[in-house]
Design a protein that fits this description.
With 402 residues, this protein is an alpha/beta fold. It has 15 helices and 13 strands. α10 links the parallel β11 and β12. α1 runs parallel beside α4.
């Protein structure tokens, strides 16, 4: 469990409660909706996909994307106005907004360390089904810490969270102190592209274009694409560069079978340089959802991306090379591998190489396992996620007005 500094936590709590009551003084406008994600530094996850969905509906809503200066917001629909996080205009919009959408917490849209949007219909998508422990569950559960969480949750957390299944609801309740009425049963907006043949084709074409741009000598005809997306380690350990650890014989096999591995670093590690090699290239400036949609296979570890990828029923490999170190120094896990693995679990490079070859040769081999995991862990996932969330928010806004 992660340690915590009681003095720092209490200071934060006192400051939040001193300011939070003032958020109730501004009248809410149900026609004003605000969006943000990833501490205001990214635009390409659930909030962005949902903002675009809402923007393309025939409504008179006023939509605002709040982020830090320099954030790439090119994927947003033109109806979504971009505001700089912390600006007077952005803070004013948050105080007026009838609905607010984030995927971490209030700090996705404001530098303030408390809920500045008060009684808005606020929704936290979070950023994936949790294999590693999140929220309150990361810490040692002392009586003082539980009391602290009870006081902090109202001034920090959005009112509603999207839950992907009954199984995931159990995690959200303990991780964020949620009641059943605070849960929206729906899939993730970012996964909407997995249900569209056209979007899947476009994602594939985009990946092939990026691969060709990285090395003009690549033959993209009939190419197999593997995506490697390791999670972030709290202790700042860096995942291995697969191009440096693959054997010469295996690299020759990748070339002979026209297989390319794309390494996408976690958001927290994207500033760490990693060299390309003969069959492993690094691409970070693309949405994870597009990468998954266009890939033939996924290699990860303890990341939530493995659960999204279940929707596509394609091979998954857990490269758990640092399992003991990760679960001791970084995060504990909610499940054992027997309970939640979505494919082969490997710990050595040799095992990884064999699993890749097996997945390329027989992609359907573990389909039954993937379908079981999908049914248990992602049972609310479907193509109607955005509509379900949109309808839920509008119902809550009507209740606010009545």
């Amino acid at each position: 469990m992660r340690p915590y500094d009681i003095a720092t936590k209490l200071l934060r709590l006192s400051c939040a409660w001193a300011r939070y009551p003032f958020t109730f003084l501004t009248r809410k406008d149900p026609k004003v909706w605000a969006f943000g994600e990833w501490l205001g530094e990214r635009c390409g996850d659930n909030s962005a996909y949902f903002a675009n969905y809402v923007a393309r509906l025939d409504t008179d809503l006023k939509l605002y994307w709040i982020c830090r200066a320099g954030t790439d917001t090119s994927m947003l629909d033109s109806r979504v106005k971009v505001l700089e996080c912390g600006s007077d205009e952005a803070e004013g919009i948050l105080r007026r907004a009838g609905a607010v959408f984030v995927d971490h917490g209030c700090y996705d849209v404001s530098p303030c360390r408390y809920n500045v949007y008060g009684q808005a219909v606020s929704v936290n998508f979070w950023h994936g089904f949790a294999l590693k422990k999140i929220g309150h569950d990361e810490y040692k559960q002392t009586l003082i810490f539980r009391m602290y969480c009870k006081l902090l949750d109202p001034v920090l957390n959005p009112r509603y969270f999207v839950t992907l299944s009954d199984e995931y609801s159990k995690i959200l309740k303990t991780a964020f102190g949620l009641k059943p009425k605070s849960l929206i049963k729906a899939g993730y907006p970012r996964n909407s592209i997995f249900y569209s043949a056209e979007k899947l084709r476009e994602a594939r074409e985009k990946l092939l274009e990026l691969i060709k741009a990285s090395n003009s000598e690549f033959n993209t005809d009939g190419m197999k694409i593997i995506v490697y997306m390791p999670t972030w380690r709290d202790n700042r350990d860096q995942p291995p560069n697969l191009g440096e650890i693959f054997s010469k014989d295996f690299t020759a096999w990748l070339e002979a079978n026209n297989v390319v591995v794309i390494h996408k670093a976690h958001f927290e590690d994207s500033d760490v340089a990693s060299k390309d090699s003969r069959r492993v290239i690094n691409i970070n400036n693309i949405s994870a959802s597009i990468l998954l949609a266009g890939a033939d296979m996924l290699i990860s570890d303890y990341s939530s991306c493995i659960f999204d990828y279940l929707i596509l029923d394609r091979p998954i490999i857990h490269f758990a090379y640092d399992y003991e170190r990760y679960t001791t120094l970084s995060r504990a896990l909610y499940y054992t591998w027997d309970e939640a693995s979505c494919g082969s679990v490997v710990e050595t490079v040799e095992e990884l190489q064999r699993a890749i070859m097996e997945g390329i040769r027989s992609p359907e081999a573990q389909s039954e396992l993937r379908q079981r995991r999908l049914a248990k862990l992602m049972s609310y996932e479907d193509a109607e996620a955005c509509k379900k969330i949109f309808d839920f928010v509008n119902e809550r806004l009507k209740e606010m007005k009545s």
